[in-house]
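pasting input
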Amino acid sequence: MSGRILVINPNSSETVTAGIDAAMAPLRFAEGPGIDCVTLAEGPPGIETQVQVDGVVAPLLALIRREPAAAYVIACFSDPGLGAAREAAAAPVFGISESAMARALSLGERFGILAILPASVKRHRRYVRSLGLESRFADSQPIGRGVGELAEPAATLAAMTEVGRRLRDDEGADVLILGCAGMAGYRAALEAELGLPVVEPCQAAAAAALGAVRLGW
Amino acid sequence: MSGRILVINPNSSETVTAGIDAAMAPLRFAEGPGIDCVTLAEGPPGIETQVQVDGVVAPLLALIRREPAAAYVIACFSDPGLGAAREAAAAPVFGISESAMARALSLGERFGILAILPASVKRHRRYVRSLGLESRFADSQPIGRGVGELAEPAATLAAMTEVGRRLRDDEGADVLILGCAGMAGYRAALEAELGLPVVEPCQAAAAAALGAVRLGW
Amino acid sequence: MSGRILVINPNSSETVTAGIDAAMAPLRFAEGPGIDCVTLAEGPPGIETQVQVDGVVAPLLALIRREPAAAYVIACFSDPGLGAAREAAAAPVFGISESAMARALSLGERFGILAILPASVKRHRRYVRSLGLESRFADSQPIGRGVGELAEPAATLAAMTEVGRRLRDDEGADVLILGCAGMAGYRAALEAELGLPVVEPCQAAAAAALGAVRLGW
Amino acid sequence: MSGRILVINPNSSETVTAGIDAAMAPLRFAEGPGIDCVTLAEGPPGIETQVQVDGVVAPLLALIRREPAAAYVIACFSDPGLGAAREAAAAPVFGISESAMARALSLGERFGILAILPASVKRHRRYVRSLGLESRFADSQPIGRGVGELAEPAATLAAMTEVGRRLRDDEGADVLILGCAGMAGYRAALEAELGLPVVEPCQAAAAAALGAVRLGW
Amino acid sequence: MSGRILVINPNSSETVTAGIDAAMAPLRFAEGPGIDCVTLAEGPPGIETQVQVDGVVAPLLALIRREPAAAYVIACFSDPGLGAAREAAAAPVFGISESAMARALSLGERFGILAILPASVKRHRRYVRSLGLESRFADSQPIGRGVGELAEPAATLAAMTEVGRRLRDDEGADVLILGCAGMAGYRAALEAELGLPVVEPCQAAAAAALGAVRLGW
Amino acid sequence: MSGRILVINPNSSETVTAGIDAAMAPLRFAEGPGIDCVTLAEGPPGIETQVQVDGVVAPLLALIRREPAAAYVIACFSDPGLGAAREAAAAPVFGISESAMARALSLGERFGILAILPASVKRHRRYVRSLGLESRFADSQPIGRGVGELAEPAATLAAMTEVGRRLRDDEGADVLILGCAGMAGYRAALEAELGLPVVEPCQAAAAAALGAVRLGW
């Protein structure tokens, strides 16, 4: 059981967790490791403010401490509690935002991020800088929809396409990153619309976790 | 009452709070604003890990919400909860680390940080990067003493002097920053030993808060 | 008398000096330090070229040498003679540009500068780089009015608002800096128009000087 | 057959290819994709100069064009022909150097590279810069042994340990990267000696390729 | 004869070589060194992809080895084989792209590059980064014409003027670089149109080579 | 007469001017442009402080205005008045520091600067940053001799060799820059001692000026 990768959705939306779980399918091998996706019951319906980011750290650490795994994925694009989880966990921990940006480095020259709300952009800029990846960063731009609104497919895809087009045409992005775990279902459609590789961050993190489990990092 | 600056020591050490309070003396004017230093009862004795940094955010926000002030200072060098506090507070919030680095910019060409423990260094490097101040940063080096050990003056000053000398001579630092609120009492002695300006971060933050209160930022 | 902060307007415009003096009001405490604003008689009416920037250094240093003070503020956004003044003065010296940018770091994620003329922009870019603050810099854009034209309120505020809006909406600035001491009177109006914090650089420098005088840096 | 990952050693040393092949073991799943390691017959015995780096590009592209695969790994730390291969190949191409650095980002704060010869260091510095990863880079330091000498275990491990210790203690590296595919066999021993995570770059690239094949990037 | 500067056009277009040769006129002194412009017979008609960039390295090195000179200029804006040529040649080697950017540093605050095709832009960005010149770089933008189309003067100049204007007005470029050796004939006309200094990269490299020959670098 | 390059030594030392003049020999062509080296009578014997740097700007501009030339070189490593001179002069102006760094970019991966005194180092660091060349900069280290002491050959060369060796071995410099016009005579000896290319900055600037005069930049 402890050979599994535990993917934790720190918001309390089961819809989001289900979307993440579906995105994991290509990474599941018969011989393992298993990939379990769980919802953090104590999380808010969506994580849209820094107060919410910081607020999920305690229950997230508690969950990590009580649920053994071979690797953990924190499936919120703010990478809440990533540093603390790395101290607390007995196994490697992956943040989906950090993992997505690392993955994007070999898919293009400059990555653009599709943010949910305007307030996310400021956090993204600071986080990109903290990772030292500024010179590979085109921009982050909001689609103007909160986590709860991501479930409406037509309007969400339209907004994502418009923002993705701007990132590509005006900011020189040649690879895009979905800036919220709740966008997981839109990767293929967005790639088809824009002709650019699109990184779904939960997939990026789980793929990295898979390698880590097998290679013992 | 709400005209005051509230300086919050997020660890539970009253000794540290007393040291901060003493460092505030030069910034107290008869006509105000007052500067009140309080201890976060829920904090750990010292904040030395990321788990502890993240762990104080919730009680810190609660304290800020229940204690009105014209400005807040978070008096821990990890600036715990700074972004969240800025969302939650109805007044400006200053982190002592961010404030100290901003202040150091006009005191020298490159600042060095005296960290407490080796684990702090990694956090400092990332934080400097997140602030975009890397090219003004000489280095952070640990004195090898935890928060609790800072109260022993002779050994602490000796360790600080040795590390400060290395930052000055080997890393080209021409201004030093005390990397822990618990070091507040050593500023003058260290300046005398090394002949460099030394920024005590609680003073830097409170001085900035003073300006902010008067100027309405 | 030497306990005062001496704010030197290096251009010869008494109108500009009066505007600076008015901006100092909130920083004056009964118990001091006093804040005296003086005009450099030898300066040009406005400092708009590098020749003028360099040309005021000699009389500025002479003034600093003959006028004792506890701290000096050089109140021109090109920070003329800042390095030389720091060598020559027996007290701390603050440049309003350097101080404004340091202050902006804790007010937002990216600062934008309202320049007077197109030629200023190039100087601002180089100066931002020399301070190592490029990754916090949104842009500098000119309002297209020389120092002498800043006294006409309606046209000046209109131009500032338009440029400020562009810095906010197109360049991602979330804090603005007034790029000329002659703009001091427009801070409140611009904040009201744009809903962003606006740093008046003479205030930023004088507030820093106030802290420096009290804290002995 | 085209579902495989093709790992190409661009030097002609079968010993090096065998070492890479052994390092792939943990990444082989029963259900595939297969991981085939091949030697570029036209390559030199070791790639130690820029002339050699550029010299292998043509035969490498020819091999890629004639050998179908679901993903390619170029297993030389200079990432020879990576850009050209990405134009030429009908599938994703991974360079081991780029992949190793991307992987290191989530294993530590600063990566150090163990180079083979002094001349490699200059290339590493430039490449790190071209990837925009300079602020996460501790240093590259040579162990002073050419590709052909890496097969002598005792002396090689001793040299790697000494350089790794310097990178850790003097340059602040908290994760190390093996700077040559010929070092693949030393990962575990070096981790044991130094207590730091060590990235074997062929593994890093193959793990990324595995994810890419499954996820369709 | 070996006192000459050898300028090598790595594409096989004699028209391009003739344009380069004409641009050399002002740098020819009676007392030498001579400046000889040659065409690499093995090159493609134009170098527009990374495959082509890498493909010319081998014949270019062969040419350098058989043709003695006091200095070499590689006259393609991708600087193909520059590192390898520096290893292989017994004399200094200049790349026109590197030389043009170095020259632009003292002509303006930010340089813009006129690229031929969209695919060039990505290469330019990476190269600028590898040279560490990102903070002086406005942007690279394509004129949308391949090497072969540069010989049509009216359409080419019109496209260059439009892109140059955008680089100047929207990206803040105050010096422009011609991003292809085939644009050599348009320098004067573009300077006249836009009022900015324009660096023709073959001239920049040959001027640097001239100094190098005389000064013994 | 106005076809000449005017090299201005802004300190009043004729010995320094004579050294510069000797260094110009290889750049003098029979057909011109002539290279005249003049001493700024109003300059101090050596320029070692920022006060002195700023103090020579006025007489330097006066000299430039009264002495026509096709290009000017300001032969002090602090590039005093470079920006102002570019505004004031009717011809291109080159600073020796800026020119030396631009030249060093194609001679190596990282340049080191031999400074005269410790105080110069801080100025160099800031200037490198203002030029955006930080990532190509190894370090600046003082030889501990003022301008007046540079005329003693044995002790000066010994000090330069020691510092150059440290820059090469400890800081990774592979090209050195002489950080004072008064060091002009030591280039060849230092190259012989250290086996690295050494840039004499007056030569670098004059060579660039030569190209500029011929090419009409």
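fyi Chain E has a mean pLDDT of 96.
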